[in-house]
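Archive maintenance. Older records in this collection stored only the sequence; we are now back-filling the structure field for every entry so that each record is complete. The fields below show one back-filled record exactly as it appears after the update. Entries are processed alphabetically, and CRISPR-associated protein Cas3 is next in the queue.

ARCHIVE ENTRY
Title: CRISPR-associated protein Cas3
Organism field: Tumebacillus flagellatus
Length field: 792
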Amino acid sequence: MLYEEFFQTTFGYKPRRYQERVKDEVLAGKNVVLVAPTGAGKTMAALAPFFYAKQMGRPIADRVLYALPLRSLASALHASISEHFPDEQNPKITIQMGNQPDDPFFEGDVVFTTIDQLLSAYVGLPYGTSKASANIPPGALIGALVVIDEFHLLSYGEALPTFLDMMKRLHPYTQFLVMTATVPKQNVEKIRGVLQGEALDLNPEERKELPQQTRALTWHDTPLTAELVLEQARKKTLVVVNTVARAQQLFLDLQNILQEQGKTLEMRCLHSRLFGSGRYETEEWVLKRFKKGAEEHALLIATQVVEAGLDISSDVLLTDLCPANALLQRIGRCARYHNEEGHVHVFSVDEQYRPYEKDLMKMTSAFLSRQETIVLQSEWEHDLIEFVHGEYDAAKMQDTLHLLPDRKKEINDAHVNGEPDTSKLVRSIDSVSVMIHPEPSSLRLELRPERISVSFQMVFHHLKAHEGKSDPVGWYPDFEENSWGRAVPIWKELTKAGDLMGQRLICLSPKYVHYHEEVGLLFTPTEDGVGVFSKETRTEPERTGERFDYFRETYLEHVTRIRALYQEEEKEGVHQVADAKLIRHLSLPPAVSPAKLAEFTGALHDIGKLTLQFQKALQDWQHDTRGIKEKDLLAHTDYIGSSLEDRKAAKLSKYQRPPHSVEGSILAIPLLSQMAQQGETEQHGLLFETMVLAIMRHHHAFSKECKCKDKFVVANGTKAVVRESLAGLFEGKMELVETKSSHEYEYYRDLSDPDLLVLYWYLVRRLRLNDRLSQERLAEEKRKEGERIHGD
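Back-filled structure field:
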């Protein structure tokens, strides 16, 4: 099938010439910086080559990680692209965000996520997983196409240098596509240089192919008011202001005016200070009322959450003054579609210019005030960006590039020590999660009560204003362990503003704040403390490790299952691109191909369970709790997580299993060394260390200490079982050699080596996911077996 035919069938229109150019560069394996106007179809340009190559059996990437700056953008794009692929499994399109953590390990074919989620995974502490699982997500970067949309929104101090470090470190193994509508030419060239790729901008002929609209812009040297909104409103009216408080007040002022006039108007308010359910409903309303061809009258008052990525269109846009790059994003929500006409009105703001840089605001104001009204053209947009952002952004980018050596060291330290400063490496966190309830102790945190992210300063000033009140203004949780070893919150009063320091979650009293169903959280009291409170969003807590079920499985059965999963992945080409990139860059011979290394590591990962002490604990458990006298060497026993008897028995010292991950890596050293030497490659040390690391850390991302102080004593029959479990993986005889646990190594300190880091991520990700999957499939088999027996 030709690309043009595939594109037309999938997305409903023929690819534009610039989209064809993007396809040519991406299919050639190049990194790309794409600059294209809003509404040009950048998302399709980025994803179509991946889908096409996959369908043609010549994949360019194992998966796409599509990162955006805002959750709302990720959610909207996930919904939009999913509509084009109704078969949920082919391809598998997933989403991973803080409020929708559906794919924490990035296992989908296309994963829509936020830049925060992606970068936190890269530095070693993913927002979507526990610290113990932190080494699973980053392996998804290997062999992936990483798309960064709305690149201009990355912060110069935190996210941008970390992303640039990612590109420099991973570029032999990962393909990057960076997209924006509003980055000055100087910075495009600097990013292209870091990527060692191509920069694509649309030429005049390609711009003519884009949907043609007629948009006029009028500058007003006065602030926007509710009266002006009603004066300028049309069928579909979008109002964008710079702060949440301003959006809330403008909405309430409009309500009052309409009520006084005896009129009604279908309108909504959208910003970050809404509960998740309310925000979702509002976003659904927006996408329906402002979609292409929508006929109903509608008015939306919003903040920056609508600036980028949302596929909506208004007849008129009324906006506060903002920097030029943000303004063009806002303009992109007006007359977005072909042959539409729209009018943009930009209003001045007070001298505080919150939350933007004063210099950028003044430069944008100076440019806009040159003419009161103008018909917008691409040349005008280009001149605006270069006038306002050219020198300013170039200086910021130069400062960022100077940060890269220090940022590289900081990320190296994070990979080694497992203690990344995400507020410095990803995003400066100046917010606190706020619940609203008069009795926080009545809420179960494991059921995820609704909460809102609010700036630290806003909450601090609120508490400061109410210090000394007789009734509590709010509470914070102090976590203590109960008799079951679980952390439970003890809620303590926020008696003064300083109590807020170090808190990430608080509960505010509805006597001093209240939640308005239409405009969200307001820092004003409700009457008698009655109103909308935080509700629990789950009916059951997320399943924890202690609730897992396990089923008896011999060591040989477990290894056989694990190896079968690796072979299944190989047959289906799950890691085809990652394998090819690793082979090419590391010059690996066939005898030690990535697939072979991975399967061999998987076959040895639980060898630490074959010690005499570990096997005795397993066999005692089976004998005492199940009445079974075991003769085989086991990997797992029967255990029902919901059984109180099993949970109590598991706490007894008799059944405590000694650690086996680090210990197993030590036992495996002689075998791993022999495996790494088979190809007679100069990479022997690299291969050996990464396999050792993967086994050492297959249960916790930062394991490094061997708990056993004596010589390992393996159970009877271990050598024969290990020999059988490795059958077919190597040529020649390979024997287990008993070793002392005092063997010292610190290979994890070599994770600053990009090649070692990448290969380690690849091996440990595959190992941990296959280990999990093997248990899930075993549990499913047991469930079906039980149903069959019950049916008989």
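Update note: Residues 378-417 form the longest helix (40 residues). The CA atoms of residues 265 and 342 lie 20 Å apart.
Entry marked complete.
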